[in-house]
Amino acid sequence: MKIKQKKSKKPKFTALKNSFYAIKTISKCAPGLIIFRILTQTSYWFFTAFIKEILFLKLLLDLITSGGSFKEYVFLILIFVGAELMATGTDCLSDYFIGIKRKSFYKNLNDRIFKKAVETDMSCFENPDFYDKYKRATEIITEEHFDEFAYYLSSFFAGGLTGIFLIIYVITIDPKILLILLVSVLVLLLEAVKGKIQVKKDREMTTHKRSKAYVKRTLYLREFAKDMRTSDIFNVLHERYKIAVEKNREIIKKYGIKIAILETLSGFFGKALPVAVTYIYAAFRFVIRKNLAVSDFSVIMTAMSNLKDVFNDLGEALSCVRRESEYFANLREFMEYETKIKSGNIKAEEFQSLEFKNVSFSYPESDKKSLNNLNLKIEKGQTVAVVGKNGAGKTTFVKLLLRFYDPTDGIILYNGKDIRVYEINSLRQQLSAVFQDYQVFALSVGENVLCREEENIGDKELILNALKKAGIYDKVEKMSYKENTILTREFDEKGVGLSGGEQQKICTARMFAKNFQLAILDEPSSALDPIAEYKMYESLIEETKDKTVIYISHRLSSAVLSDKIYVFENGRVTESGTHEELLASGGSYCNLFTLQASSYNENERSVI
Predict the structure, then answer these.
(1) With the CA atoms of 165, 168, 172 and 175 taken in that order, what torsion angle do they form, in degrees rounded to the nearest 10?
(2) Single pTM value for the model
């Protein structure tokens, strides 16, 4: 589903709103993280830039010029050491709590992102724009943008507090010196512009970064390994990788010169110019006017240098806070995405009937109808086969039944009611689906079957019964750890790799482990040969004789054993009836079955 970006005027105070959202998100996921960050930065800034380098230096120089006693020296140094211990202690304690809070943030925000990703419409996973938004949202964690935001936000507060004390001190010596710092205001503007350009650069690089990540991922995934070694596909992927790298280099070049110029100007107005003018003015008062004390001369130079650093760091912190807040804007956009498939509020009751009435459907951004005025009805207890060539609309039929999408036109009735009035989760609990693009996870056999962790003693029996019904029990019993054996060797050297047909049977076992009312098997035998396929259907029909089952297939083994067959062509039902009725009619089903039957006979002869 296309996530459209509305063309509208950019809202005012966007950076401020993004920053507030960032603070709210961090505070919710890791309460106290920002406070501890502020404490750490303030203890460092205030102690270093004001107490140690200004206040202590001023008192020490005054003590020297006034001929103070040794006792006064020791007393002053002890005070300084005490302040140092307090600052260091605060810093260490804050760092300890920050480490804990960061872990908390990782967990809680990941949980929120994962939950949102699972709840997001299936259509989003067929949309590149969605993946860009998802990647930018996860970059808050993977690229540690949240930590950068918290760090620079705390630096802004700590630097601002320290700056206020420094300004007050400078005013007591000579208010005119502050005029020199006005030029440093330009630094804030320059850093703000630089941050805006960096955000734009990062946004443009997102798609190419995702392309690079895809190539890296496919190189080590097992399912791609054989094709990588028996074809030239690696060269194609490598070329895509090089293109992505080159595109990002072009983007960096595009914005790099602007950023470099802004950094140069920022350095000149924020560092070189203020220091030079301050030195000249202080020297003029000390040498020419002779109205500046030695202690004031030394301290004013340090104070102005520190103030210059404060202004520079404030500018950088402000720019970085703005930049990092943009990543939270990406998160906000992702988290606030509203699903198009809305859940109803009625609990789905036990299955009685299913009906598609004049249902049409087109995928987003497609003008072609995948389903076109589809009509069919399935009653409780029936075994139904939905057959047809690839692209006939069979899988789309399943997606609409499971409410991954809603019809463009027409209505789907579950027990005589519009399917949209039911709670989605309660509806799906009544259904059990085995998909043609089946997947096993790097978890134990039992967890793959239950699709959850084992919770009680009865779960083991449930797993074993499901494996028996799916015809994979004997294989699992021969494994070292039986149902506790980890599938795939991705995370466990003792894990077991299964063939395609065996993996498909594990996925079929999931259906038997669920207390379903209606089973949907979408190409459940795609990894099997015709003879094994027929035997599997015989077993499935025997094990599901008290259930309602829909078989989706372009092969017709399931159709022979079904109570009713629906033939799909171009998104609609062109024929329906029993196997015998459709053979007698001599239509497209008869032609397709005759063609496939000859293939079955050839397979039988080759086996003999």
Answers:
(1) 130
(2) 0.64
